[in-house]
Request: fold
Amino acid sequence: GDSVTQMEGPVTLSEEAFLTINCTYTATGYPSLFWYVQYPGEGLQLLLKATKADDKGSNKGFEATYRKETTSFHLEKGSVQVSDSAVYFCALYPGANSKLTFGKGITLSVRP
Amino acid sequence: NAGVTQTPKFQVLKTGQSMTLQCAQDMNHEYMSWYRQDPGMGLRLIHYSVGAGITDQGEVPNGYNVSRSTTEDFPLRLLSAAPSQTSVYFCASSYSRADSPLHFGNGTRLTVT
Reply:
């Protein structure tokens, strides 16, 4: 079945460090891919999305490129801030009549 | 602009008790869903609805009931609470079941003793 695999966490970085969070997927068709972020005490919110191969989603300095050849959608940011501390979820939508599938999430802590 | 509102924020139940978690959205979204979030498990879909009067099961529906009598409201009922239902519950909505962004409430933290 369709699934999303995220790298194991947690991740701790210093402010202004480069961030990469890995996400790979398994799907039979051409899914849409998402990154959601959950700040402490809140629900999830959409960070970025990509709907077809080679699309790049971007928001708040974060980027992710839909790589069909490697079935990946890695999240990157060039310079993280303390305010980026949150839990990040990769998610996949396979297509019509299907459900959104989330990865297990990874906790990012950014220290000053 | 309220978005998705969940109540209560916290709840403690004894085993065997029943309760209803409330969810309301003011965005006229057709699609609504309930997830539970557990450490190391990510988010798992409990039930969902594609419109008023229509509900369906997700991947972990046992022990929960839902109904959708209006577009705005989608309550989740625990019939007889068990310790395994200790979790954080999130309600979410979107315009359609397609790849529209999901809007989440702030969650209900439930403890069953």
The mean pLDDT of chain B is 93. The first strand of chain B starts at residue 4 and ends at 7.
